[in-house]
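Customer escalation, tier 2.

The customer says the design service returned an amino acid string that "doesn't look like it belongs to this structure." They asked us to rerun it and document both sides in this ticket. The original structure tokens are below, unchanged.
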């Protein structure tokens, strides 16, 4: 199987992927660094896909490690190495690839240590909380003899697989002129050490949560942003929250406008004090409009509902099509998107080309997110060339 995710519709992708599952006894040997909420999801999804062997795990937090072990042995009796240190993990010659799912502020240091092994790396988003760290990581990845995949799993949500199939493969919209994206959701969940409640540790809400969406907007526009302007702040969430003497400073809503060098305009809306989850991508070209949306919930009894509509004459989805992944995949994590980003990682390990995010693309999303975060803090529009010069970074080619 050679998955190019945007090249086939989500229904075909799901059917092929489910048939391609393994039993976890063959394939590359993976070590996971970080076993918080996202690390445990990666562990569970890797076992569900069964195309890699879990060689071992490392986490400094005993409660996370114990919970991950319980989840692991509930699904398989295959042995699992528990590394006492990051150095011990790096010295295990049986490991073929690494997955990093630690808190944002630790990404760059762990990445640089693992890069010295010259083995493939899956790195969760955002790649770093510092732009200079992120650009250095891009340079290191480009010099690496293997590959690095960024954890932009929203690319693999069913509605976005079909959206980019329509935009890129079918070219159904013609030339894209406007993009609007939105997310409505409840507040941030609890994390180890509550690091996601503080800008210094997370990079800020527009970095931590929204780099996914800026990645999708960048993909839809395929141009260089020249100006970013954001409004928003803190209205409802964590206004009185403290942890270990620190007061939360995380934002909970924003409107972001992006101007690209080809004249395309984009808008992003974030609201993090809604009751349920809803996200939407609207792309309009000279031939018509595309709407890709998803309704979901943090309540475990509620399954996601993904939909795409392509308002172009004679398109089969003109009046809308439900594209939700089958339940067994959808419930595995992030509406099934984590399942497919693991499939993409396996495909790359097998030498195939896929549509997963590269370090350069991850850095582009981080640049837009950081500019938006800066604009939110200052109340002023950000000119990207000036911002890059100020931060001593450059837009990747």
């Amino acid at each position: 199987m050679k998955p190019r995710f945007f090249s086939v519709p989500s229904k075909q992708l799901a059917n092929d992927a489910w048939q391609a599952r393994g039993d976890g006894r063959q394939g590359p040997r993976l070590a996971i660094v970080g076993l918080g909420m996202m690390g445990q999801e990666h562990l569970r999804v890797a076992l569900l896909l069964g195309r890699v062997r879990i060689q071992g795990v490392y986490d400094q937090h005993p409660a996370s490690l114990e919970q991950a072990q319980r989840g692991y042995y509930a699904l398989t009796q295959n042995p699992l190495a528990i590394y006492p240190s990051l150095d011990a993990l790096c010295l295990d010659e049986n490991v073929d690839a690494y997955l990093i799912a630690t808190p944002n502020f630790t990404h760059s240091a762990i990445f640089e240590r693992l890069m010295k092994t010259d083995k493939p790396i899956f790195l969760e988003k955002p790649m770093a909380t510092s732009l200079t760290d992120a650009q250095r990581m891009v340079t290191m990845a480009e010099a690496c003899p293997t590959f690095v995949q960024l954890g932009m799993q929203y690319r693999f949500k069913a509605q976005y697989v079909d959206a980019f199939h329509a935009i890129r493969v079918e070219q159904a919209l013609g030339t894209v002129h406007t993009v609007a994206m939105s997310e409505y959701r409840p507040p941030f969940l609890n994390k180890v050490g509550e690091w996601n409640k503080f800008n210094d540790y997370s990079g800020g809400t527009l970095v931590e949560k929204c780099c996914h969406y800026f990645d999708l907007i960048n993909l839809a526009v395929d141009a260089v942003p020249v100006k970013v302007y954001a409004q928003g702040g803190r209205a409802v969430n964590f206004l009185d929250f403290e942890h270990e003497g620190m007061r939360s400073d995380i934002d909970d809503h924003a409107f972001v406008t992006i101007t690209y060098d080809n004249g395309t305009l984009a808008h992003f809306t974030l609201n993090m004090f809604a009751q349920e989850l809803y996200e939407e991508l609207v792309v309009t070209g000279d031939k018509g409009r595309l709407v890709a949306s998803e309704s979901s919930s943090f309540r475990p009894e509620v399954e996601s509902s993904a939909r795409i509509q392509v308002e172009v004459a004679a398109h089969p989805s003109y009046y809308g099509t439900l594209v939700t992944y089958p339940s067994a995949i959808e419930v595995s994590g992030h509406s099934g998107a984590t399942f497919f980003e693991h499939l993409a990682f396996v495909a790359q390990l097998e030498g195939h080309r896929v549509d997963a995010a590269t370090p350069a693309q991850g850095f582009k999303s981080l640049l837009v997110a950081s500019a938006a975060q800066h604009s939110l803090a200052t109340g002023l529009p950000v000119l990207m060339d000036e911002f890059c010069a100020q931060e001593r970074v450059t837009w990747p080619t």
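Tier 2 assessment: The sequence is consistent with the input. The chain has 14 helices and 17 strands. The chain has a mean pLDDT of 95. Sent an explanation to the customer and offered a walkthrough call.
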